[in-house]
Amino acid sequence: MKNKQEPGMTLIVKTITRLTVGLILLYGIYIVLHGHISPGGGFAGGVIIALSFIHLMLAFGKDVALKKLSQPVASFFESIGALMFLSIALLGLFGGYFFFNFFVNKGEPFSLFSAGTIPLSNIAICFKVGAGLFAIFMALVLFKGTGKDK
Amino acid sequence: MIEYILCLALFCIGLYCVLRKRNIIKIVIGLGIIEYAINLLFVLTSYRMNSRAPVLDKGVVITNMVDPLPHALVLTNIVIGLAVTALIVAIAIRLYEKYGTFDITKIRKLRG
Amino acid sequence: MVLGAIVAVEIEDLLSSVIAVGAVGLALSMGFLILKAPDLAIVQLVVEILCIIILIRATIKKDLSIIKNGRWFFNTFSTLLFIFCFLVFAYFALKELPSFGEPIMRVAKEYIRQGLSKTGATNIVSSIILDFRGYDTLGEATVLFTAVIGVLAIMRKVGRINEK
Asked: What is the Cα–Cα distance from C63 to C69, expressed in whole angstroms?
């Protein structure tokens, strides 16, 4: 803790974080998009994306991370995810029942654009889980910051 | 059969922790251990000898596959467990702010 | 894993206890990988990291006096009674479970047979949770949404001053 005037941890942690945050975010996006081909899916990818932002916040202090993704934006993304998932479910009603996989041409297997509505649902769940967990963590951190005067 | 018995032992440790300890964080840990035991039980019931993971492969016809239905149920359960843990921890922090301790018996005494 | 759980329960220091729970979770993740469930292994690993971060957030920076356990008689007796009841029920339940290595697969057979042709996804678990059993995932999303709202409402600063 040599540089106490700057928020966050030491120089080593900051440098390594600057290198690795992008890779973690990219890995999360890869897991989400390939959720219907390889193991993974919306839950794991969403949690990994939330972890990348939490990593940023732990290393650099809360101001830098809040500049990237503030709390209203997180709430907005979470609502968008929920509405997207529900609308995909409702669109299936055109085919006859809830959660109907309404694309006629499913695409060939083992390619990225296949499997009808499943990638869309994966992306929706990814938004929802990532933004929701980040909002939970941010609520805990902000409470610790402001509750000291009590 | 020995796997089921180890899983039950894990459950019993979690139950002992929840009922016996007086610290709120220890109670949260006990709930987490119980959740692990239940997930492990579900996955153990779905295992099949000499089988493959439930992912289809290119050009290979798979006849022997693990039961994928408990995997889906457990996948849902893990994320719900995380949400419940976060909620309990939030309540615990608020209780610490109000009473200054994590001890449940002292909280009860202060209230009465 | 059982040893890790015993250490996690019995150790005095809270931070060491939380780290022992992390060890239990990682062992569980490896167990999922051995039991041929790669999806669950990934999710369990990642969720465990986040859970440890939240628990450490709760325990750190508080001058925790080590709370001695209450050793009164009634608590011990009731704990042993509950564990005994659970073991009795578990003994009857163990006889009904399928033996290890031979699952029942009454429903899942249809899912595996028709999964590729109906959904087009090659990951069967993904096709189950998002297509065949979409209602489960919808309910899970609702639970997560409720948890987020609950945390935000508990941790709120405004409106708590009037209470004191």
From this structure: 18
In a domain, A95, yes or no: yes
Averaged pLDDT, A47-63:
79
- pLDDT band for position B112 (cuts 50, 70, 90): very low
Q: What SS3 class is residue B57?
A: strand
Residue pLDDT, tens place only, C3-16:
666 666 666 666 77
Angstrom distance (rounded) from CA C126 to CA C129: 5
Structure tokens at A131: 């933004």
DSSP letter (8 states) at residue C35: T
**Is B79 in Cβ contact with C147 (below 8 Å)?**
no
- Give the whole-angstrom CA distance, residue A78 versus residue C27: 32
Range(s) of the domain holding residue A126: 11-149
Quote the tokens at residue A50. Answer: 């939330």
Closest-approach residue (CA) in chain B for A132: B83
Based on DSSP, count helices (H) and strands (E) in chain B, helices before strands.
4, 0
pLDDT score recorded for residue A38: 73
CB nearest to B93's CB, from A38, A133, A143? A143
Q: Residue holding tokens 């669109």? A: A91
Gap from C69 CA to chain B (nearest CA, Å): 6
Class of domain B2-54+66-111: mainly alpha
DSSP helix/strand/coil, A83: helix
Number of domains within chain A: 1
CB atoms within 10 A of CB A95: 13
Q: Is there a contact between A128 and C141 if contact means CB atoms under 8 Å apart?
A: yes
- For chains A and C, what is the number of CB pairs under 8 angstroms? 135
Q: Which two tokens stand for residue A66?
A: 């809040």
Q: Is ipTM strictly over 0.90?
A: no
Supply the DSSP symbol for B75: H
SS3 category, B23: strand
Q: Do the Cβ atoms of B55 and C116 come closer than 8 Å?
A: no
Residue A4 falls inside a structural domain: no
DSSP per-residue codes, C94-142? HHHSPPTB----SSHHHHHHHHHHHH--SBHHHHIIIIITHHHHHHHHH
